[in-house]
Amino acid sequence: DVQLVESGGALLQSGGSLRLSCAASGFPFSGYFMSWVRQAPGKGLEWVANINTDGSATYYVDSIKGRFTISRDNSKNSVFLQMNSLRAEDTAVYYCARVSGVRPADGNWRVWLDPWGQGTLVTVSS
Amino acid sequence: DIQMTQSPSSLSASVGDRVTITCRASQSINNYLTWYQQKPGKAPKVLIYAASSLQSGVPSRFSGSGSGTDFTLTISNLQPEDFATYYCQQTYTNPLYSFGPGTKLEIK
Predict the structure, then answer these.
(1) pLDDT, tens digit, for every residue of A58-91?
(2) Most B CBs within 10 Å: which of A111, A118, A120, A121, as the mutation test of the B interface?
(3) Could you give the CA distance from residue B27 to residue B5 in angstroms, rounded to a whole number?
(4) CA gap B18, B20 in Å, rounded
(5) Does the beta-carbon distance from A47 to B36 stay under 8 Å?
(6) Phi and psi for B11 in degrees, rounded to 5?
(7) In the sheet where B70-75 sits, what is the strand order?
């Protein structure tokens, strides 16, 4: 089965750092872009970061640029999110997800996030 | 940045009803639009990709339409398991994305 399992969530104080991990199984991990998406308590989904297949290119939402870093280790089928200078507003469930897609006749990929992990909770106290 | 909006933010419906949720992009995104369903305490699940393509395993009562800036998700013959929150997501700016704020579908 295709599976993603996040770990590393914790309760910590504002200004602290944390590293989240996501272990993938059941698919050729090195062939897929990977994403992190977060959801604050009672709020909607916010895409956070993407990483390409070999880790040479990363992409971030503006609100976390310079503080968070996405990385991957294809030898361990894992993707990571290093979070520094954490703020209360970073409190959320963090999900990792695989970027899946199809390439129709126009040659441009149509992508979606599937599957998702179960999420890991990060709580930042001020 | 492309902003996504959804309407309504919540709605109440009964089993057997047909409901429509609307998603609008702040600029044209062609058909780079995905719909997700999320139940409380669970990760989102993809329903529709490329605006109108049904994800494998998703019941045919779910359908999507639209192109450009305006999109709809329609659920026909609502079932008890369909009461959830629905999100749209633009992937036009792949590999940067944005989600709509969500629509909560509740039982009347």
Answers:
(1) 999 999 999 999 999 999 999 999 999 999 999 9
(2) A111
(3) 11
(4) 7
(5) no
(6) -155, 155
(7) B4-7, B19-25, B70-75, B62-67
